Inverse folding.
């Protein structure tokens, strides 16, 4: 079974631009979560989607948004990029709707200059 | 590889010794906990989980202990190997919130 894939793996953007990151979960998984990882703040929860519905959202500004498609693939978008948005963005998928193991992708490294 | 955390607490252990990594969680109502391992350039990888109705759970070479009274988790790794060198995170979850809160992480260095 293929693992969680994220594209692109690396991205360099300029302040003020917007960016869209993509995540393909493990086949059959309907839950997709997004996290931001930085050296200073660690792993912080952005949002979680299940069957195209956002079920929870972390404490991030409205510039951070996401969506999930009917095939469970998910995208997250960051508008009006700031230097502080530079981070590793991780996507994780889970098989069922309850508690359980999350499978993480390799992440997208976003650098904002 | 990419640096996961520049200022993480570090535990240095001799190869073959046992390692104990500690984590304090934040929400006394959390009822599910996971330990993850993250190697440089990779996403976190599941190690072991435990539910709040248990105090201890064992896996292959790993044991997780949960102390709900003081909101503390520990991960014990037996006979630590060079391949265990990584950053270790605990994560907590409250059922129905669909949200995992991660600890700050501990870097484990295995000395040959």
């Amino acid at each position: 079974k293929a693992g969680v894939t994220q594209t692109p793996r690396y991205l360099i953007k300029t302040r003020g631009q917007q960016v869209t990151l993509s995540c393909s979960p493990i086949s059959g998984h309907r839950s997709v979560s997004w996290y931001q990882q930085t050296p200073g703040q660690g792993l912080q929860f952005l949002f979680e989607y299940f069957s195209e519905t956002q079920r929870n959202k972390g404490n991030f500004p409205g510039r951070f948004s996401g969506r999930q498609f009917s095939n469970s693939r998910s995208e997250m978008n960051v508008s009006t990029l700031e230097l502080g948005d530079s981070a590793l963005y991780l996507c994780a998928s889970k098989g069922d709707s309850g508690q359980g193991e999350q499978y993480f992708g390799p992440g997208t490294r976003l650098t904002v200059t | 590889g990419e640096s996961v955390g520049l200022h993480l607490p570090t535990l240095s252990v001799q190869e073959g010794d046992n390692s104990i990594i500690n984590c304090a969680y934040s929400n006394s109502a959390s009822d599910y906990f996971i330990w993850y391992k993250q190697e440089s350039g990779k996403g976190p990888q599941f190690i072991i989980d435990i539910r709040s109705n248990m105090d201890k759970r064992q896996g292959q070479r790993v044991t997780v202990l949960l102390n709900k009274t003081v909101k503390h988790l520990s991960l014990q790794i037996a006979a630590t190997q060079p391949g265990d060198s990584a950053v270790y995170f605990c994560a907590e979850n409250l059922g129905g919130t669909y949200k995992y809160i991660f600890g700050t992480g501990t870097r484990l260095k295995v000395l040959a």
Notes: The two ends of chain A are 37 Å apart (CA to CA). Chain A has a mean pLDDT of 95.
